[in-house]
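name: query_chain
kind: protein
chains: 1
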Amino acid sequence: MNARIDANFNANFNDQSGNREARLRAGIAAWMATHLTGEFACLRYRGGPGDEDAFPELRKAWERELAEGGWTGLGWPVEAGGRGWSIADQVIFHEEYARAGGPGRMGHIGEGLLGPTLIACGNADQRARFLPGILAGSQFWCQGYSEPGAGSDLANVRTRAERQADGAWRIDGQKVWTSLAHDSEWIFVLARSDPQSRGNKGLSFFLVPLDQPGVEIRPIQQMNGGAEFNEVFFDGARAEAADLVGEPGDGWRIAMTLLGFERGISTLGQQMQFIRELDWVIEAAREAGVADDPAIRARIAKAWAGLRTMRYNALRMLASAGEGGAGEGGAASGVLDKSSLIYKYYWSNWHRDLGQLAMDVLGERANLVDANDAKRSRLQGVFLFSRADTIYAGTNEIQLNIMAERGLGMPKEPRGQA
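structure:
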């Protein structure tokens, strides 16, 4: 979107007459129809979970296209380079983006997670150095949290950070399940900076360049054939003193702030992906002649109702953060109320069940791989990848404990010493 078109869009957007929401939706849809064409046409409906290694360089170019159109940093405050949109307006963008077939965002971790965290917890120097590249779609980030012995139990982090004589930090350890590390320039790392500490004490939050000696990235081959996840090994990697976010030992607070943003506004875009997948299932059921089977119809109806429940729960969760996008309360701090605790458990189990429904609809064909049958391949991908949904970002068991302990105030489950 050039400056003139952008000015026209903003003028219409800010016009208070008529149906403002309809105009906003129409403006986003029109931009997507104009720009998700030509070289970008092949990206439609690609790059989502389970397909994140599709067309990485072209999707990076798409991030720059979005940035030039003014579609990045929508909820960031204006003083941080964003557009300061309300939660309601951001929801509309994510829904229309997904409805148009917008590809999975290569810049999501930077724009959706790290950027808001630096706005909330970083210093002026860090914001000045990193936010512009994220907004421009020219700098890409990955997340260094999980480890072989610290996945759902994140507080058991073993990666070490040792302060050097010049004030920099030496990083040693291993991270795993690191999405798109092989396509990123930077990683934010939760590491133990106090060797005598246990649990969530003595952790620090670092910004670490990946292109340096002492960093090795190894792909993890998945059962669906992709390799969007990686292991990242640190052997004397360096984080500059200026790239420590907050104070030493403040890492857990910052990490939890970031995870609050993970359950933020982009969840509505995720649900639009789910709507597409349910549509694929319904289409496959019709083609297979099982759409009138009472059991299949009941399961499709249950999936449809589950999507609506998911949407209203997400809207309630986001409303608890306060209107105004990057305004007061949770929207700026990443802190959401207790209604957010059910979200991950609910959607991950719903999605796993949808994957099973897809296989049952396909019947015997579900067991056969045919690269020329795109519809079948997509549904097989949903089934295979959704197996992981109830494991990553906190297993079902961990999620139930969180709901019980933090949400309902029940006694904590006995835990062994770290």
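note: The longest helix spans residues 294-320.
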